[in-house]
């Protein structure tokens, strides 16, 4: 099974349990005014010219694959109220998380969120509903 398939299964499970997890892409791309041929330059099939190009950075190194929230009922003085607790899930089918990914998971947990590495549905349950 591909890691993308596992990710989608975990997102579906989280939703069925009342949580919401969204795909978080990390990387860099170029943005600007797009021009497609023909023009005064030679383009190969699939090429795109970007005028006034500037880099667009999404996420940051170590950011988890999935992020969102877990609904949590709070205690005594606000019984019945529900708050959203920040959640991050690093999806790994076979590999190991990088030190940056582990640091991010630790930071979220230390701040009161819920984060961890999920290789299957049982791992996701443990992360979200501990």
From TrEMBL:
<dbReference type="InterPro" id="IPR011856">
    <property type="entry name" value="tRNA_endonuc-like_dom_sf"/>
</dbReference>
<dbReference type="InterPro" id="IPR014883">
    <property type="entry name" value="VRR_NUC"/>
</dbReference>
<keyword id="KW-0378">Hydrolase</keyword>
<protein>
    <recommendedName>
        <fullName>VRR-NUC domain-containing protein</fullName>
    </recommendedName>
</protein>
<dbReference type="Pfam" id="PF08774">
    <property type="entry name" value="VRR_NUC"/>
</dbReference>
<dbReference type="GO" id="GO:0016788">
    <property type="term" value="F:hydrolase activity, acting on ester bonds"/>
</dbReference>
<feature type="domain" description="VRR-NUC">
    <location>
        <begin position="53"/>
        <end position="119"/>
    </location>
</feature>
<dbReference type="GO" id="GO:0003676">
    <property type="term" value="F:nucleic acid binding"/>
</dbReference>
<keyword id="KW-0540">Nuclease</keyword>
<dbReference type="GO" id="GO:0004518">
    <property type="term" value="F:nuclease activity"/>
</dbReference>
């Amino acid at each position: 099974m591909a890691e993308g398939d596992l990710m989608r299964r975990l997102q579906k499970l989280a939703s069925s349990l009342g949580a919401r997890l969204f795909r978080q892409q990390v990387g860099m791309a170029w943005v600007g005014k797009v021009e497609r041929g023909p023009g005064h330059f030679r383009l190969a099939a699939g090429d795109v010219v970007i005028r006034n190009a500037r880099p667009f950075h999404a996420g940051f190194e170590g950011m988890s694959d999935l992020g969102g929230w877990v609904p949590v009922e709070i205690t005594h003085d606000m019984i019945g109220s529900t708050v959203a607790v920040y959640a991050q899930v690093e999806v790994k089918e076979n590999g190991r998380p990088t030190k940056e990914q582990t640091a991010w998971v630790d930071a979220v947990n230390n701040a009161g969120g819920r984060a961890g590495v999920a290789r299957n549905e049982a791992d996701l349950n443990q992360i979200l509903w501990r």
